[in-house]
Amino acid sequence: MFTGIIAHKTKIVAAHQAGGDLKLALAKPASLKLKLGDSVAVNGVCLTVDNLKRNNTAEFLLMPETLNKTIFGKNFVKLIGQEVNVELPLKYRQRMGGHFVLGHVDGVGKIVKIIKKGQTKVLVINYPQQFKKLLVNKGSVAIDGVSLTVASLAPNSFSVSLVNYTLKRTAFNKKKAGDLVNLEFDILGKYILNK
Question: Is the pTM of this model over 0.85?
Answer without folding.
Answer: yes
